[in-house]
Amino acid sequence: MVINRIMSDDVPRRAEPLWIWGFLLLGGLLIGLPMVTVLWSVGDGQGLHHLWQTVLPEYGRNSILLVMMVTPAVVLLGGVTAWCTSLYTFPGSGWLAWALVLPLALPPYIVAYAYTDFFQSGGLLYQLSGLYFDRLRSLPGAAAILTLVLYPYAYLSARAIFARQASAQVAAARMLGAKGLRLFWRVGLPMGWPALAAGGALAAMESLADYGTVAFFGVPTFTTGIYRAWFGLGEGATAARLSACLLAFIALFLWAERSARGRRSFSEASNAPPLKRSLTGLVGWGMTLWCTAPVVLGFAVPMLLLCVGSLSSPMPGRGDWLPVVGATLMIGVAVAGLGLLLALCFAAARRFARRSPVRAGISMVNFGYAIPGSVVAVGLLIPMTWLDYRLIDLFGGRQLWLTGSIIALVLALQVRFLPLALRPLEAGFSRIPVEMEAAGRSLGAGTGLLFARLHLPLLAPSLGAACLLLFVETVKELPATLILRPFNMDTLAVRAHQLAADERLSQAALPSLVIAFIALLPIILLNRQTAARPRQAALPMPVGAYQ
Amino acid sequence: MIRLMTLMIVATVCQSAHAQQLNIYSARHYETDEALYEGFTDMTGIRLNRLEGGSDELITRMSREGRYSPADILITVDAGRLFRAEQAGLFQPIQSELLQKTIPAHMRHPDGLWFGFSSRARMIFYRKGDVASSEIARYEDLADPALGKRLCIRSSSNIYNLSLTASMIHHLGEKAALDWGKGMVANLARPPQGGDTDQLRAVAAGTCSVAVANSYYFARLMASDRPTDKAVINRLGWIFPNQSDRGTHVNVSGAGVAAHAPNREAAIQFLEYLASPAAQQYFAKGNHEYPAVAGVAGTAALDRLGEFQADRLNVSVLGQKQASAQRLVDQSGWR
Question: How far is A248 from chain B (nearest CA, A)?
Answer without folding.
Answer: 25
